[in-house]
Amino acid sequence: MNADPKPGKMSDAELGAAARAATAGGLDLGALSAAVAERAAADGILDLAYSRVDSPLGDLLAASTPAGLVHLGYPNRPLDEQLGALAERISPRIVESPRRLDEVRRELDEYFAGRRRRFGLALDWRLSGGFVRRVLKETARIPFGETRTYGEVATAAGSPRAFRAAGSALGANPIPIVVPCHRVLRSGGGLGGYGGGLDVKRELLALEGVLELSKGTSPDPGRRPRRRHRGSP
């Protein structure tokens, strides 16, 4: 005799019924996707959950593991490319599950609305290691509305002369915005690079009050942000 399914776990019969209903047009495919994700998680075979997250910057791709948020991708990179890289580097057992990214979505919404200055999300750092991880963890400490230089971040990560390597590490940041690499600038105040594009970096710095952008106009490529540290006016 088969054991009863665990509470909250969809049985084989229920999952099959959901699939048949979806095929017949009686169920939203999104609901079926959520049911499959829940079943995979309950069975311990879900390594990655992902979802699109709407933002003023376009649709972001968020992915999490049981340990926390592991990837946040910008729309300038194709969705299939991002998912393929995650499947290769972490696990092919990946399922779309918006429900599992609800907290990520909520905190990002609050950030873009100006109601959140610090993220409280659990993070999975497995896509970085060594010096790169140290740089990213130091970057995660930079407060909202403040900036650091590549040299300062490299020094904080234990390698004062490795400012170019720090720039490369930030360019490979798998969790931008939450790990705020947009807050790291060149020593002269220039923007430097950014994986999501310099317009996105300007938008984020403007959101945090570091860079002023005129409404209705394109960002000025020559405008330099004001560098601010704790205690600056």
Summarize the structure.
The chain starts with 11 loop residues before the first helix and ends in a 26-residue tail after the last helix. It has helices spanning 12-23, 29-42, 79-89, 102-112, 130-139, 150-156, 163-171, 198-207, and strands spanning 48-53, 60-65, 68-73, 94-96, 148-149, 184-185. It is of the alpha/beta class and 233 residues long.
Features:
alpha/beta, Double Stranded RNA Binding Domain, Arc Repressor Mutant, subunit A, two-stranded parallel sheet, globular, disordered N terminus
Give a verbal description of the structure.
The protein is of the alpha/beta class and 233 residues long. The protein folds into three domains: 9-45, no CATH class; 46-123, 2-Layer Sandwich (Double Stranded RNA Binding Domain); 130-207, Winged helix-like DNA-binding domain superfamily/Winged helix DNA-binding domain (Arc Repressor Mutant, subunit A, Orthogonal Bundle), CATH 1.10.10.10. Helices cover 36% and strands 11% of the residues. It is built from eight helices and six strands. It has helices at 12-23, 29-42, 79-89, 102-112, 130-139, 150-156, 163-171, 198-207, and strands at 48-53, 60-65, 68-73, 94-96, 148-149, 184-185. The strands form two sheets. It has a four-stranded mixed beta sheet with strand order 3-2-1-4. The protein has a two-stranded parallel sheet with strand order 5-6. A hairpin with a 6-residue loop joins strand 1 (48-53) and strand 2. The radius of gyration is 21 Å and the shape is globular.
